[in-house]
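chain below, 377 aa
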Amino acid sequence: MNIGIVTLRLSQNYGGILQAYALSEFLKDSGHSPILINWKSNVKKDSNKRKLCLAVKKLLYVVTSNPRWYVRNEVDYEKVYSPLMCFINSNFDNMIDNALPANLNQKNFDGFIVGSDQVWRPKYFGEDRIGWAYLSFAREWPNVKRIGYSISFGTEEWEYTKEQYRECKQLVQLFNSISVRESSAIGLCDSKFNIKVEHTLDPTFFFTKDDYVKKFNLKHEQISNGKILTYVLNMTDEISTVINQIELQTEEKSFSVIHKPFPQYGPIAISEYIAPTLPQWLRGFYDAEYILTDSFHACVFAIIFNKPFVAFGNKRRGLTRFRSLLSMFNLQNQLIMSVNEFKFDLFEHFDWDSVNKIKEGKIMFSKEYLLNNLIKT
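prediction:
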């Protein structure tokens, strides 16, 4: 089957890229032809007021050379994240890039898989295009299979407007089957859409540690410069203090698998800020003895690689993703809401045999759910 994969646009998010890659590879291994629909960027054009403001700042920088007035442009960001874009362009054979509904032809698709990641969260997918994530463009396409796999709302709160809700409630009834990534989404689908759904794993779990080592040739990547992996998207002085404490206690160095943060003002030497490649990012998990993170997918890879970890909760970005994942593996104590809750013994006493037993069962169920629904008439 030719299967369109509908997920968030792939660009700068390691976890988002890897979940789409894992799903695509699994489909290929199962005899299908996946087609990644990589949507056109939803970044809105600058208003005339903002354009004027930027023009004034650029002029001030030329006149004064004061770094405060330097305007960083999109080319800078494209260069920083070029290793990720290179991976995307090289590893999705049938990608439709910068896609819009008008670009999609019914004759090219036997079905669609929506997911995974926070694809049903309007503020992430796009407030004015959330219907696309419910396959609004295929509303009138007969005989097209519609499957939701490990879909995430990203939060336990209902974030839809009345108009979004009205459209999506109609579209969701056309789906052949739906599974969700978070346990809280089961209740949302029941109460808002009046549908029953299954609970499945993020597709990154479809590969084992050995699979990732082999597929990404990790043993030939440069060894990480430390044993304490920090993948913190919202770094604070308090978290930095915790990292220093761990370094002192373990006598090991910390290292990061994220590009250096940009300075607040002034031009930069782009070569010093290039983001790690996907293999370099994964090599960090391979080498780590301790992991500190506030990222959902970093928790996933800590579990896949069987590495002790502590997750810092971030209410603004959503906690239900972490709570659902960690409670599934009886690791809910690894999520802390404040640095004051951190204790070094959180890194100890992991029962990986128990975790792996649960993981194997969940992976089997998740794969069977997907394959059975693809062949179901």
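Residues 76 and 270 are 7 Å apart (CA to CA). The longest helix spans residues 352-375.
thats it, cya
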